[in-house]
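Review form for a predicted model. The reviewer records the input and the model, then writes brief findings.
Reviewer: anonymous (R2)
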Amino acid sequence: NAEPFQVAVREDNCIIVSLEASDVVSSSSVYVVKIAGESKNYFFQFDEFNSTLPAPVVFNAKYHGLYYIVTLLVVNSNMVSKSARSVTVLTKPLPVSNVSIYDYKPSPETGVLFEIQYPEKYNVFTRVNISYWEGKDYRTMLYKDFFKGKTVFNHWLPGICYSNITFQLVSEATFNKSTLVEYSGVQHEPKQHRTVPYPPRNISVQIIPISRNNWEEHSGNFAEESFMGPPEIIRKEKVSQPSASPSGIPAANTSAAWLDDPSNSTEDEATSRPSWWSSEAESSEGEEEFVSAVSSAYEASDAKTSGRATAEPPPFLPVQMVLTWLPPKPPTAFDGFHINIEREENSTEFLTVSEDTHKFVAELKEPGKYKLSVTTFSSSGSCEVRGSQSAKTLSFYISPTGEWIEELTEKPQRVTVTVLSSTTALTSWTASHESSGNSTIVSVLSLTCQKQKESQRLEKHYCTEVNSSSSLIENLVPGAQYQVVVYLRKGPLVGPPSDPVTFSIVPTGIKDLTLYPLGPTAVVLSWNRPFLGVFRKYVVEMFYFNPSTMTSEWTTYYEIAATVSLTASVRIANLLPAWYYNFRVTMVTWGDPELSCCDSSTISFITAPVAPKITSVEYYNHLLYVTWTYGGDGPDLSHSRMLHWMVVAEGKKKIKKSVTRNVMTAVLSLPPGDIYNLSVTACTERGSNTSMPQLVKLEPAPPKSLFAVNKTQTSVTLLWVEEGVADFFEVYCQQAGSGQETKVQVCVSSLVSTL
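Model under review:
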């Protein structure tokens, strides 16, 4: 009946392996323990023994929550090992160290967000066990959908106190069709959380006038029987804003006289029952009664009456307010309702009634604007008290004459804005027949103003919301974008806002666009803007034929941020010479979508050509051959605005020759003997550019047809014909038969000489 070898896991995560007597097969054998589960296997040998069993093998497991397979190996004298038996054990995971519980914002009534922290290194688990008390019921469940320590529960009950919430990490392993499960301990502080209850339903209010006779008869002495039942108020609080009341008199006294509640006692009014408080709540069951716990009495005071009460009734006749509601939708756990009554935004009554109360009756003794809200609260259990969200806030107005103006719930429909001019617009909308008599509030806000730096704002009137009763919107600024919201108003009550409508005013555009040429490849554009206007930027565009893409289109060249300056300019460079350009400057707004103006702000210009460069000049046979280049290697002038070339040779005579733009050579017939200033000019419609002049000196041609006339013994007259240009002629005379040359005359300016 001996037990096989034993394997146990201690609290310090050590695995203890003990050899039992039934495991011993031979005293000459060696007993080895093999432990598998981590990245490598571990082997441990039991100490040699005779009659007494060896000490246990202790293995310090690195991983928590991991299963290990422990195998006993028996090695005989022939060094043959045999697996005797195997045992699977599971270590315990490390516990959760910290827990946080938050409301699940999309649904705080039924959802919570759990966030747990635990040691991550060498800690293995498959699921998380969550245990808690749901009210008086104990719940536990296994959950595995944790991502980075967070998960969302969205199936709790609203208003319930969930207490003693604990988390345990669970490790599971299956081996040989058997499942091992280990739970971590609980080391974190148990948590508690109350879900938010649902709000009450179908909240409504009704105002009932009280006749003067009835009010005079019962003023300050209301009996319980005059209302629906005994008071069901559990708790009442008053919150008042500080007022300018005389020192020594509580500020709450000045705003306490607008709500009356019938008391169950008429004796000692000054101390036990305030004369200004009279309210009543009706229980839907009518079975249980709660002790009325009204606030301490206040004494009405008025600095002008010097504390002396008047017997005359106030000019305003009180009215009866009946507030009704239905309990929240099931299954909501709740313990009562909070009633919040606010008057003129400076005095608030906060009352608490039981969960069976679904009606509250009170008398309002002062006119003004009132706001009512009813919320559910849950307080049972050890969790903190939580109230529901306000499902609906009721607003109404009691006029000094006792007229009841109900809350406006309708919002204007189909709001449209029609722009009449650059500074005015007209708002229109539709409303139901019942609301056609109500007045309106038109709220205007500039969206452009919010996008600009304060130092660069060009319009300031609608930087904050401006409300007006007129449908005509004035003082608008060209280029700005506005948002309009319309409210219906009846008395001091304002209804819900309409859907916002956005409209934009088209900018007026620039003026006085001027172009200043800076050469063949650059110009300067300058312009002015109107004083009244708002915009985001200037956009400078140009239109030209692009020889790279073989297309003509408008392209943006530069964008200039808006400034307060009325004048702006930009330099445009890298233009093509002798090319047609059209420039446009538009103003672009901040709106979405952007608006721009105006396409008509354009100016056209033909750039000047670059100067040609004379490359070759040759004079042959009374003809001058001139060759030049233009703008680099082989430019394509097919789309250029170049008209022609003008070749000019200026000496004593000025000779011009026009050459077509596709030819860059010319032949000039120049008289010999002169010095010429040679230049080539590139010509366009609006400008020209001339090459560097080149000096050309032509050799003089010899005279033609020399004649000797009037011969005498001592003289002879010579005549000759001039060809070209000559400043003077040199005449030489040599006696025939002698080798001596005699210069008779050096300079002769005429074509006749007598020797």
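Findings: The mean pLDDT is 79.
Further findings: The chain has six domains: 6-90, 98-195, 319-406, 413-505, 511-607, 613-698.
Recommendation: see findings above.
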